[in-house]
Task: structure prediction
Amino acid sequence: MSAGRVAVVLAAVAVVLSGAAFLRGQTAAPPAEKAGAPVENEHAGYAPGLGEIMTFQQMRHAKLAIAGANSNWALADYELDELNEGFDDIVTYHPTHKDIKQPLTEMVPGFMKASIDALREAIKAKDAAKFNTAFDEVTAGCNGCHQAADFGFNVVIKPATAPYPNQQFAPVN
Result:
């Protein structure tokens, strides 16, 4: 390679590195903040998209169902907490949505709180029958919220199979 080409390559590398250094100092404002709504949380520089949160919710919903079907109450309790945290993330990061008339800060708790509380009680009681009923209510709450938000094409069901072959769902006792 000629000295001229080496100089051009080194100059290009310097530009890329200086641009990367500049970008590292930048933080993106969460979508709600951009829209003028204050977002107060410890991760103010990062806002997961609603679709990303919902994808995690789908995973948590499935794992919760399988844990309950296996009477793994410790795992079910953990997954329910994770599911509930996901709902909290929805209302924190996406208090409103451009395609949904009612604020998600009202919709999510309105559709989910009672069924989540009932499921928590069933898990605490280690009652499989109550778990199944309450889990079906959680699932109905998800679908009711989707319907009310005009996202009824996204239908949530109880999983028929375990989608995580690398996790043990039976209790470890």
Remarks:
- The chain has six helices and no strands.
- Helices lie at 3-24, 31-34, 50-69, 73-93, 104-125, 128-148.
